[in-house]
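Problem: given the chain below (221 residues), write out its structure.
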Amino acid sequence: MHRELGFTPRDRALVAAGPAVAGLLLAGGLPIAARWLLGLDTALPFRQIIRLIGAIDRPWELAIEAAVLALAGLLVTVVLFERLITIAVAPAEARFGETVMSRNDVAALYPEGDTLVVLDRESRQAVRCMPRARRKALAEAFQQFGYPWRDADPYADLYRPWIAAADALPPAVDAVLSARAVAVRKKAAKEAGELRATLEKLGYAVRDEGEKQFWRPLVRS
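Solution.
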C-alpha cells in the first residue's frame, strides 16, 4: 500500500498550458501598457525598451511577439515539469524523486515556502525538493502513514544569525559560511548546496532568509 503524490488534473493543466496562455495575454497587453507609460509625464527606467514595445501595433508584429512569449511560456512549463517532483509514500519508506528514505531515518518533514524539507536523525537536510503535490495533500499522506510531519521547522528557535568573524563558531565553520555567503549572493544554488553539505559534516545546519544566513548546531534524535 502506498500513495503517489503528483499533480492533480487541474494543476497539471495549469502547469502545462498556463505559462503559454499568460505569454499570449501579455502579447496583447504589453504594447498598450507601454504606450500608457510613455504618455505619463515622468522619468522611466529602460525608456528605450518601453518605446520599442509601445511601437508594436501591426498584426505581423503582434504575431511575432505572441509567438516569442508563448514559446517562453512553454520553456517555463518544461522547467517546471523537470524541477517539480512526484513523491511516493509507503509505511516503510518514501521516495522523493530519485531519493529513497526509510521511515525510521526520517526525523521530521515540513514545508518551507514551495519547498519540502526532510530532516534525518542528525537533523540534517536529507532531502530538499519542490513537490508537484500541494501542501495539504502532502500533510495528509505523510500523517496517514505515521511520518513526523511538522507545519514548520521544529528547530527554528535554535538558529542564530551568522556574523562573519564573530568568534561564535569554529574558524573552519566560519570560513565555510563566509564562502557560502558569496555563493548565496551570486545565486549559485549548486555551490551553496555543496557548502551546506560541508557545514553539516562539520556539525552545523544553515538556513537562508534572502541573502542572510542563519546557523544552528545539529541535533541528534
